[in-house]
Amino acid sequence: MLSISSEGVVHVSDEASLAGPAAPAEGWPRAARLGDRVAAGLAETEQVLDDYLAGSVRRARALHPSAGELWAALRDQLGGKRVRPRLVLTAYLGLGGDDVGAAAAVAAAQEVLHTAMLAHDDLLDHDEVRRGRPNLAGSYRARLGAGLTPSETEDQVRAAALLGGDLGLAGAVDVVLRSGVEASLQAELVALIVRSIHTSVAGELLDVTGQSAAPVTFDALRLAGLKTATYTCVVPLLSGAALAGAGSAERAALESYGSAAGVAFQLVDDLLGVLGDPAVTGKSVLGDLREGKRTYLLAVAHARAAPAGRAVLEARVGDPALDESGAGEVRAVLEATGAADAVRTRVDALVADAVAAAEGLPPDLAAELAGLAVALTERSA
Q1: What is the pTM of this model?
Q2: In terms of Cα–Cα distance, which of 125, 197, 189, 186 is closest to 161?
Q3: CB-facing half-sphere around the CA of 282: CA atoms within 13 A
Q4: N or C: which end of the chain has fewer CB within 10 A?
Q5: How many C-alpha atoms does 329 have within 13 Å on its Cβ side?
Q6: Of 346, 341, 338, 334, residue with least CA distance to 310
Q7: In a 3-state reduction of DSSP, which class is residue 322?
Q8: What domains are there in the chain, each with its CATH number?
Q9: Coil, strand, or helix at residue 319?
């Protein structure tokens, strides 16, 4: 479970894991078997990713060595929890699919898309660290030699992040086109990728422009749906469903599940971005505050704060020079207002909505998705 210490730091227990339970829950033996099949599919997905990215580096080097270096740098950014491939495989296998090779390719495409989204998101957020190590921009900055002016350095760093993200967007489509699935299904899967991109761009734009909006009037839940829920949960699930030939009722249930689970996922990210442990998250707890991110956490704090607390939020949030002392003042307001607890309560409600949405799906799939909804939100990174 997620709790908040007296210092305002979020701690998460090990009760839930994206790797799934160590043993099947009572009454859920089929879910355990589905989890095993998903794990096997994830192993195949890793092989697809390795093969595709190695081939992309070779093909790019034939064009120019610098193009190969960019693909190699993008390849090095892959990591994390493989949430999106897991959701593709869970939906596909849970709905009766049995071609794990095809599903692994579709799952790999979603991971390449995610890597592209992160490159662009970090560029917009002026971040050069992710998962505790340099991201695409940061790795390029580290490899640039002496002799460049500061302006030239910044231009090359930004270009690497922008163009690397562009390669990932095209790469996601390329993986689908190389998957071997029939052409009509390829078109549907690519259309889902396009939906992810369009929706996420709308969310990113709202995220950037919203930083000048009043926190109490900004629709942070709408932002979470646009920026995160569709590409993180909804489209991976629908991609697995499309590959399995699922009907409209199953797809509608997965859309509802993914929308609720995806917003909950983002709300937890917002908590961890301010109250998490950087040694675990791999990211600073100052970045979102310095950027003035209009999160649901901030909206609740503003709405509940006394005038003195609101003055602290207005002075500190959005200050690009914010230090740990100033961030501590913000966290004190968050604690005094109970804002983090309110966000956690909303997360729990969204998880309940997601679980309810999945109830009409096959029992093993519904059980697996229920466990994933908990794991996605009871995490420390």
Answers
A1: 0.88
A2: 125
A3: 11
A4: N
A5: 15
A6: 334
A7: coil
A8: 26-377 (1.10.600.10)
A9: coil
